[in-house]
Amino acid sequence: MLLQERHLTKLRELVYRLDGTEGAAYLLLGKADIKSDPWDRSRRLKLLSHEVVPIPPEEMVSVSSQHVTWGTDSFVRLLKQAQHEDLIVGIVHSHPQGLQNFSGQDDANEPDLVQLVQNRNGTSGMMASLLLPADGSPRARLWVSPKTKFDCRKVSVVGMSLAIHPLEVHNRMPHEIWHRQALAFGAALNDLLRSLKVGIVGCGATGSATAMLLARLGVGQLLLIDEDIVEPTNLNRLHGAKRADADAMRPKVEVVAREIADLGLGVRPHFIRSWVGNSRCRDALRSCDIIFGCTDDHTGRMFLNRFAYFYLVPLIDLGLAILPRASGGFSDLTGRVTVITPGAPCLLCRNIVDIQAAREEDLRRTQPEDYARQKEEAYVRGAGNPAPAVVTFTTATACMAVNELIQGLTGFKGPDGWCWNRAYRFDLHEDRRPGALPNPDCIICKRFEYWGRGDMEPFLDRVG
Amino acid sequence: MNKDLNTVHLEAEDIEACAKEGRKPKATGPYRILIGNDRLEFVPYQIDDPIVTGRQLLDLAKCRPADEHILFQLLHDGLLEEIRLEETTDLRERGIEKFIAFRSDRSFRFLLDGRQFEWGGTHITGLTLKKLAEVAPATHGVWLIVHGHEDKKIGNNEFVDLSEPGVEKFFTGVEQTTEG
Ligand SMILES: [Zn+2]
Ligand SMILES: [Zn+2]
């Protein structure tokens, strides 16, 4: 289960009352129905907090520090909404006295509610239950029938940072290899990294560097998405690529995956040679805990921008600008790392995506003949001269991005969580934080309809 | 007829009023009762004998032939209890004087918690639905699914008209829940 941080804050207010009694609230959840997880081939359902719904005060029947009893009329209204929008209903409660897990009372009472869910919405109706113990990790479970429930493997909180509460840790990493990393951050971070599923979209200069860094950091599962092959002109900056790869015209994803496997660190790479917006990538992307956007294509960025809000999968987007001056020096030499997640301004509002360029890319992808004609007639700008690229700057930008992940998981730079937008000017040694002027009506980042919405038709509410 | 009505007015015992006032109805008639049709239009009748059969009541309400009708006694809690033709009921015991007669030659179909039911009458109460769903009436609610609006909660004594177009869909569920 993934919770928006603002939802967790709101839920804590609702279920922890000042007088020390228990409280309860409802939650509407979107879902990511993953038919096949790329790493273990299992079917998984991710639940995404979409909307918090307080229980009307008049429905509260009785509360104490041990229990909370409430009427279910507004639950019925919620069931209707859940059915209409294909969402899952959830109930949330607390244990002020500190019991860490669901109680016998919870086990006894929740089946009645599940029965109500299924009586109204049919036997495919499910109900989630989230417990917020006074101290300790949130716990969640999903009822698929009054008799059958599954414990959520982990509860993640997405917002200013990425807090992950796993039920248990599998796949522990070989201790001695990451011992010195544990000396810096503690063994818990190593375990957490091992459990992570991280996507890397774009396996060029920044992407290959990001992938190799994440593998050596100990991330257990890496997803690589790119459609290009290795070319001789990539060899000066593509980590792991060899002359023979260019000669054999090997796909970049294949080369990077091979290098990761050859490290012998037990990191599991999974690669898809495709454009990120292709429906083939959906299951893999939805399986990820976080995604690095290392692509230079604007449509891909726009896709990931939406995806981050719909599926509560934070996007760490990387970019590099090198603008040499004819007179010498640089008018810009900046590595940029931007975190895109509910609460942060989106890439469109930051003007990082060029919508015109995205349109042209779309045209080139979907109607190559039209694109060629329009290019000839100078209606589209076309792929211009190649941009400058230097391996030290692309790699340094990848380092900045991976450090931002560590910040999100540990808060080592301070308790305020992620820096939404960091730009390092290499030639001036200046660390900048360029702000944004978000569009107050931005459907993606300023309104809440898409946050945690999960699966819907059409995918990401995008036509075409 | 007018004379009868006057007599009723002066002497007939209103059984429901007795129940409300907590006193026992008179041991002898006449008694005032109401018999309703499938649109729940109730007509007052008076009856002398406190112990009556279903057939007598159907006759009284001119529901003929009696064997093509079904008679229900409406109990306090909203439940309809069928009174068969030769079955007797004692007006003094129930504390309520309302009956409903349905023609039995047609039936109405509805869905309750996903199960299909046939019902002999045009109307059904919330409590009857709960009984049919085999849920505890005190702890469970019943709702009618309404498209485009909120689902309508049906009170125990509230009637739903099943004769409206479409198959009604009902569902039940706990009215309160407790987490510990
Ligand atoms: Zn925006
Ligand atoms: Zn509990």
Question: What topology emerges from the helices and strands here?
Answer:
The complex is a heterodimer of chains A (464) and B (180).
Chain A: E1 2-4, H1 5-15, E2 24-34, E3 44-54, E4 60-63, E5 68-71, H2 73-85, E6 88-95, H3 104-121, E7 127-133, E8 139-145, E9 148-151, E10 154-158, E11 162-166, H4 179-185, H5 187-195, E12 197-201, H6 205-217, E13 221-226, H7 243-247, H8 252-263, E14 268-273, H9 282-287, E15 290-293, H10 298-311, E16 315-324, E17 330-340, H11 355-366, H12 368-376, H13 391-410, E18 421-425, E19 430-432
Parallel strand pairs in A: 1-10, 6-7, 12-13, 12-15, 13-14, 15-16
Antiparallel strand pairs in A: 2-3, 2-6, 4-5, 7-8, 8-9, 10-11, 16-17, 17-18, 18-19
Chain B: H1 2-11, E1 13-14, H2 15-21, E2 31-36, E3 42-47, E4 51-53, H3 54-60, E5 69-74, E6 80-83, E7 88-90, H4 91-94, E8 98-103, E9 108-112, E10 115-119, E11 123-125, H5 126-133, E12 140-144, E13 152-153, E14 159-161, E15 168-174, E16 176-179
Parallel strand pairs in B: 1-2, 2-8, 9-15
Antiparallel strand pairs in B: 2-3, 4-7, 5-6, 5-8, 9-10, 11-14, 12-13, 12-15
Residues 345-346, 348-349, 438-439, 442, 444-446 of chain A line the site of one zinc ion.
Can you offer a commentary on this structure?
The complex is a heterodimer of chains A (464) and B (180). With 464 residues, chain A is of the alpha/beta class. In chain A, 32% of the residues lie in helices and 26% in strands. Chain A is built from 13 helices and 19 strands. In chain A, the strands form four sheets. Chain A has an eight-stranded mixed sheet, with helices on both faces. A six-stranded mixed sheet of chain A has the order 3-2-6-7-8-9, with helices on both faces. In chain A, strands 1-10-11 form a three-stranded mixed sheet. In chain A, α6 (205-217) packs parallel to α8. The model of chain A has no long low-confidence stretch (mean pLDDT 93). In chain B, strands 1, 2, 3, 5, 6 and 8 form a six-stranded mixed sheet that branches. Chain B has a five-stranded mixed sheet with strand order 10-9-15-12-13, with helices on one face. A two-stranded antiparallel ribbon of chain B has the order 4-7. Chain B is globular. The longest helix of chain B is centred in the first third of the chain and has 10 residues, at 2-11. Chain B starts with a helix and ends with a strand. Chain B has 180 residues and is an alpha+beta fold. In chain B, β9 and β10 (115-119) form a beta hairpin. The chains are: A alpha/beta (464), B alpha+beta (180). Chain A binds chain B through residues 22, 24, 61, 66-73, 75-77, 79-80, 91, 93, 103-106, 109-110, 112-113, 115-120, 122-123, and chain B through 113-114, 133, 141, 143, 145, 150-151, 153, 171-180. β5 of chain A pairs antiparallel with β16 (176-179) of chain B, so a sheet runs across the interface. One zinc ion (ZN) is lined by residues 345-346, 348-349, 438-439, 442, 444-446 of chain A.
